[in-house]
Amino acid sequence: MHTKSLKGLTIPLISVLAGFIVGAILMLIFGYDPIQNYQNLLKGSLGGIYSIGETLRNMISLILTALGFAVASKAGFFNIGGPGQYLIGWFGAIVFTLKFSHLPAVILIIGALLCGALAGGLWSMIAGVLRAYFGTSEVITTIMLNYIILYLVNFAVKSWLASKGSDSSPNITTKANLNTPFLQHITDNSTFNWGFFIALAVVGLVWFYFKKTKSGFEIQAVGLNESASQYAGVNVKRTIIIAMLISGLLAGLGGAIDGLGNFENISVSNNLPNVGYNGMAVALLAAGNPIGIIFSALLFSALQIGGLSISVYSNTPSEIVDIVIASIIFFVGIKYAFELMTKKGWLKRKNKVVKGGAEK
Amino acid sequence: MEDYVVEMRHITKQFGSYKANNDISLQLRKGEILALLGENGAGKSTLMGMLSGLLEPTEGEILINNKVVRMDNPRDAKRLGIGMVHQHFMLIPAFSVLENIILGDEPTKATRIDYKKAASDIEELAEKYHLDIDVHAKVRDITVGMQQRVEIMKALYRKANIFIFDEPTAALTPQEIDQFIKILRALAAEGNSVIFITHKLKEIKEVADRCVVIRMGKVIETVQVAETKEETLAEMMVGRKVNFAVEKEETDKTKTVLAVNDLNVEVHGLPKVKDLNLTVHSGEIVGVAGVDGNGQSELIEAITGLRKIKKGTVELKGKFLQNLGARKISEAGIGCIPEDRQNVGLILPFTIAENLVLKSYHKKPASQHGLLNYKKINEIGRQLIKSFDIRSQSEKELAGDLSGGNQQKVIVAREISANPDLLIAANPTRGVDIGAIEYIHEKIIEQRNTGHAVLLISFELDEILKLSDRIVVMHEGQIVGEIDPRHTSSEELGLMMAGKTPIGQEG
C-alpha cells in the first residue's frame, strides 16, 4: 500500500534479468544457442495472434491464484492451499454446469463461477478458522487440505461424474463455454476466453479493496501488527477468516474459469494442479501488488507457452524454461541479500542513518 | 598534554546536506564515567555510532590511547577495546546466557567448544564486577535487567575497557537501575572508562563525573556534574527553560468515573490480578506504582478488553464494561496509551494519519459504507499533527520513521482527541526525551484539570509522585496500600512496592 513503486521495481527486474542469464549460461554449457532459443520463446508466446491468445488465456488462472496468495500474505499468512482451492473451484464449476445444464447460458455461467469460487473460499476458510481459533499454522493445514481435496475430487469424479470405465467427467454444454466461437474466430482458434476480462476486473477489485475499503485496511493492519489491531478494536479472528475466505475465493474462481473456458470437463489426476504453485511465484515476483501481478503473470505465462515451442523449433529441451522460472523465483527469494548489498553500498557512501541519528 | 583513553577531535558527520554532528570534540579519561546528554535526534547515537565503528566520520579524527585510529566496522572497534551495549539487546533468546556471551569468540579445545573454560572465565569476571548472572539460564527466561548484564558481560569477555551504553536504563525497573549504577561504578573503579547516552538527569547526577551536552549536532557544553544543577543541565539540553513543576488546578473529585470491583484475572491458569478494587474519580489522576510484573499490565488489559476477566466488574460512569471487547470499551469512553508503543500502540508501516484514526477508521468521518475516506483521514491527520505538535514531514510519513517522542505524541493525540472519560496511561514517557515528557505530562494534567479521570501506571516513581493525586501500590496482583503523594517519598514508595510494611493502608 505504501511501497514506493519505482524503487519496488528494481528487485523484480534484476531477478528476471538474472533468471534469463542463468538460463543462457546453462544453454551455452550444454551446447544450445540461447539467442536462438529466446527468440523462439518470444515467437512462441507473443509472435502471432494465436500464441498471444494462448498466453493471455494461460494468464487467467495465474493472475487469480496469485491474487489469492497475495490477499492471504497481506494478512500475514502463507497460503499454500492455492492448488487445492483451484482444484475445488474447477470441480465446483463443472458440477454446477453439468447438473444445471438446462439453465440459460448467462445464469449457468455466473452460477458455475460463483459455485467454484465459493467452494474454493470455504475450503480455504477451514484453514482460516483453525488459525484464528486454535492458532494452527496455515502452512501445515493448507498443504494437508490440498491432498484431502485432491483425493476427494478424484473420488467424486470417478464414482459420481464419470461414466463407467472412464476417468473423466462428460464435457460441459457448449453454451457454458467461455471460449466462444467469436473469440476463437478473432484469435485464430486459440483457447483465449472471456475469463481474461473477468480476471482483469478482479485485479481492479482487489486493488480497490486494499486501497479503499475498511475491511482491506483491517486485513493489512492485522497482517502488519496483530496486537496493535486487537488494541485498536479490530476483530482479529474475523479478519483472519475473511482474508483466508477471499484468498480461496480467488483461487477457486481461477479454477472455475479454467474449467469452463479451457478444460470443459474434469478428470482424475495424480497431481495437484501446478498453476496453484505457479500463482505463488507470480505473486512473489509482484511482491503482492495487484497491478504488478498482471505483468508478472504475463511474463510467467509467456515463458510457459513460449517454452512449448522451444523444443519444437530446436532440440533444446523445454525444461530450460522451468529453470529460468525457478531462477527468477530464486533471485526474488534472495532479494534480502540484494537489499543487504545495496544497504552496504549505501553505508560505504557514508549515507547510513542510524537510529536517532538524523531526525529533523 | 593529558592522557585520554578516547579523544574525538572536531568530528563532523554529514548525511546528504544534513549535519548530524557538527565539529564535536570530546575526551574520555581512564576510569571516568562520562554522560552524553541530549534530546532525541540531537546526534548522540550518530556520534557513538562513529566511536563503535558503525559509521565513518565525514571530518575529524578519533584517537584511542593517543593514537589516531580508523574503524571501518564494529569488529575494528572491538579490537580496540570498545564495547557497545545497545538499547535493544542483541541476544539470541533460545541460547543460554553462556552461549550468548561466547558466541563468535568461543574458546576451543581441539575442535570442540570448551564450555568449562568459558564458564569459569565468565564466573571470574562476574565476581569481579558484581554482575549477577545465571550462565546456564536461557536468555528468553531471564529479566531485562539480567539481559543487560549479559550484554555487559559480552563486552567484558571480549576484554573491552571502554564501554558505551545507549540509553541503558530506559527499560529497567527502579531496582534494576540501582543495580546497574553499582555496576557502572564497579567498571570505573577497575580502571575502565564509560560513556553513557541518556536523557535522565537524575542518573547523571548520581553516577557521572562529567557530562557533555549535545544539542542539534553541536556540543553545547562540557560540565563537571558535581558542580551543575539538574535544572541547568535540562536547560542546556533543551535550549530553553524547562517547566518542571506541574500546574494542578483544584478539581471536583466527587464523581466516580471508573469503579473496578473484585477483579480477578488469570494468565495460563495463574492468578495475576486478585480481588482488586479500584476507583478513579473525575478530575483525578490515580497513580499505580509497582515493580514490573505485579499485575499492572494485566489490570490495564482487563479494563481495556484485551484480556478476559475471570471474575469481577469494571464500571465506567455506571455502565458495566467487563469483557465487552476492545472496540466497545474504547467507544464507551476509555482511552489508553499502551505500555508498548511500537508493538501495540502503533502500526509502524502505516502512515501517521492512518495511525491517528486507528481507533476511529470504522466510523464517520474516516469511513462510510465500508469505504475509507482518505481525504478526511489525511485532513484529521494534518489537524492533529498541528494541534499536538507532532514533528513530522507530513501526515503521510510512516509512523516508523518518527522519533520515539513523536511516536508517543501520535498515540497521545489519538487517545486524547477521542475525548475519553477515562484515560489510562501506561509508562507514557518511557524512553522519550525531556521535551516530549514535558508535553505529555502537560496533556495528562490537562485531562485531569478539565474533569476527566486518569489512571497512570508507571515504573518511574518520580513521574507517579509528580502527577498523581492519589497513589495505589500494586504487589502480586493486589493493591497493598494507598498513599498521598504529598506526604511520601520514593523510599517509602519503594518499600511498599517490594511488598514490605504497607504504611497508611486503606481499602
TrEMBL record, chain B:
<dbReference type="Pfam" id="PF00005">
    <property type="entry name" value="ABC_tran"/>
</dbReference>
<keyword id="KW-1278">Translocase</keyword>
<feature type="domain" description="ABC transporter">
    <location>
        <begin position="258"/>
        <end position="501"/>
    </location>
</feature>
<keyword id="KW-0677">Repeat</keyword>
<keyword id="KW-0067">ATP-binding</keyword>
<dbReference type="GO" id="GO:0005886">
    <property type="term" value="C:plasma membrane"/>
</dbReference>
<keyword id="KW-0547">Nucleotide-binding</keyword>
<feature type="domain" description="ABC transporter">
    <location>
        <begin position="6"/>
        <end position="241"/>
    </location>
</feature>
<dbReference type="InterPro" id="IPR003439">
    <property type="entry name" value="ABC_transporter-like_ATP-bd"/>
</dbReference>
<protein>
    <submittedName>
        <fullName>ABC transporter ATP-binding protein</fullName>
    </submittedName>
</protein>
<keyword id="KW-0472">Membrane</keyword>
<dbReference type="InterPro" id="IPR050107">
    <property type="entry name" value="ABC_carbohydrate_import_ATPase"/>
</dbReference>
<keyword id="KW-1003">Cell membrane</keyword>
<keyword id="KW-0813">Transport</keyword>
<dbReference type="GO" id="GO:0016887">
    <property type="term" value="F:ATP hydrolysis activity"/>
</dbReference>
<dbReference type="GO" id="GO:0005524">
    <property type="term" value="F:ATP binding"/>
</dbReference>
<dbReference type="InterPro" id="IPR017871">
    <property type="entry name" value="ABC_transporter-like_CS"/>
</dbReference>
<dbReference type="InterPro" id="IPR027417">
    <property type="entry name" value="P-loop_NTPase"/>
</dbReference>
<dbReference type="InterPro" id="IPR003593">
    <property type="entry name" value="AAA+_ATPase"/>
</dbReference>
